[in-house]
């Protein structure tokens, strides 16, 4: 037994219990990937399966629904990711300060995590239903505490922008506590003496935020952006319940498979979704690496 192996043996023994889970996940990933690629590059013609072929890929890229779903999903990511980051950072800064009932407020802000996403989506569906949703009832002046603002009920989910906006609000509200906790842990790790020194030098809260907090929690911010953007790309429940007529890539996969009965095109859209997630993550990590290098210069 050489010295190098003896040095590696303790490390191998430490991570050995993780090997079964790693093999399981890797095997599952390989099986699913091979199956998806096989479906993507095959098609059914005259009751016969043709492989390999680009027929399914060509058909998907010609679908107006695919173009619309890709645009809606990209919009979801571009708008939803910064919105979750800003909301989480704002609440993390509020919770970082000491005030009465801070523990109670923190517990209340964690409630969205305890509510299943499907339940939240159904509640929003009831709230913005047409014509008798609670939002319309309030705006029509059916409750004494609120004045009448409209004369006819609004079909909220009949408009693409309203439907996607409601879906996005539900998604941000549901996942906000995760971003908040990640950013709060990053802020809590900052040495308090840095804030005390900044105060003695006359720096206000805005300067402390810009010069101390933001630079030191960049790893937490990076984690939030990366994780939340991935979640936005593959979102399904909220747009499926609230914006069924205006598909995202996730809901289009379900529609192609179940409603149109075309697993080959559904697999093609799934592969496109995976490529989008991996590609955007690599691009983001590249820019983060560049920024780190520029900061060291």
Task: Give a verbal description of the structure.
- By secondary structure, the protein is mainly α.
- Helix content is 75%, strand content 2%.
- It contains 15 helices and 2 strands.
- The chain has helices at residues 3-15, 19-40, 55-62, 64-96, 102-109, 111-114, 117-127, 134-139, 160-188, 192-200, 205-216, 218-233, 237-242, 249-259, 263-296, and strands at 43-45, 48-50.
- A two-stranded antiparallel sheet has the order 1-2.
- Strand 1 (43-45) and strand 2 (48-50) form a beta hairpin.
- Helix 4 runs antiparallel to helix 12 (218-233).
- The protein is flat.
- The two termini are 45 Å apart.
- 27% of the residues are buried.
Major β-sheet strand ordering:
1-2
Euclidean distance between termini CA atoms: 45 Å
Derived structural class: mainly alpha
Strand content: under 5%
**Based on DSSP secondary structure assignment, what is the total number of beta strands?**
2
Tell me the Rg in angstroms.
Answer: 25 Å
Rough shape?
flat
Largest sheet properties: 2 strands, antiparallel
Determine the number of helices (DSSP H or I, runs of at least 4 residues). Answer: 15
Bin the helical content.
Answer: over 70%
**What order do the helices and strands follow?**
HHEEHHHHHHHHHHHHH
Which regions contain 5 or more consecutive residues with pLDDT less than 50? none
Average pLDDT works out at 85
Write the layout of secondary structure elements.
Layout: H1 3-15, H2 19-40, E1 43-45, E2 48-50, H3 55-62, H4 64-96, H5 102-109, H6 111-114, H7 117-127, H8 134-139, H9 160-188, H10 192-200, H11 205-216, H12 218-233, H13 237-242, H14 249-259, H15 263-296
Antiparallel strand pairs: 1-2
């Amino acid at each position: 037994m050489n010295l190098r192996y003896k040095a590696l043996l303790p490390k191998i023994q430490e991570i050995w219990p993780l090997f079964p889970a790693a093999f399981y996940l890797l095997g599952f990933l390989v099986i699913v990937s091979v199956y998806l690629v096989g479906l993507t590059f095959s098609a059914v013609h005259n009751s016969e399966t043709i492989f390999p072929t680009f027929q399914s890929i060509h058909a998907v890229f010609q679908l107006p629904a695919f173009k619309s779903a890709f645009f809606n999903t990209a919009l979801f990511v571009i708008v939803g990711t910064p919105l979750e980051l800003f909301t989480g950072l704002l609440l993390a800064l509020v919770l970082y300060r000491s005030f009465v009932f801070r523990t109670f407020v923190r517990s209340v802000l964690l409630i969205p995590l305890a509510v299943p996403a499907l339940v939240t989506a159904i509640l929003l569906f009831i709230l913005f239903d047409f014509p008798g949703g609670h939002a319309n009832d309030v705006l029509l002046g059916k409750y004494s505490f609120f004045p009448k603002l409209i004369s006819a009920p609004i079909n909220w989910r009949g408009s693409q922008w309203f439907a996607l906006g409601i879906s996005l609000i539900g998604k941000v509200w549901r996942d906000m506590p995760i971003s908040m906790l990640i950013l709060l842990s990053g802020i809590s790790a900052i040495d308090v003496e840095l804030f005390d020194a900044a105060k003695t030098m006359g720096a206000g809260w805005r300067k402390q935020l810009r010069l101390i907090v933001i630079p030191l929690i960049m790893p937490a911010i990076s984690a939030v952006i990366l994780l939340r953007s991935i979640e936005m790309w593959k979102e399904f429940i909220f747009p499926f319940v609230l914006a069924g007529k205006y598909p995202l890539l996730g809901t289009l996969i379900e529609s192609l498979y179940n409603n149109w009965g075309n697993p080959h095109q559904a697999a093609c859209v799934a592969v496109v979704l995976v490529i989008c997630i991996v590609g955007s993550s690599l691009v983001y990590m590249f820019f983060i690496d560049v920024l780190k290098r520029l900061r060291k210069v």
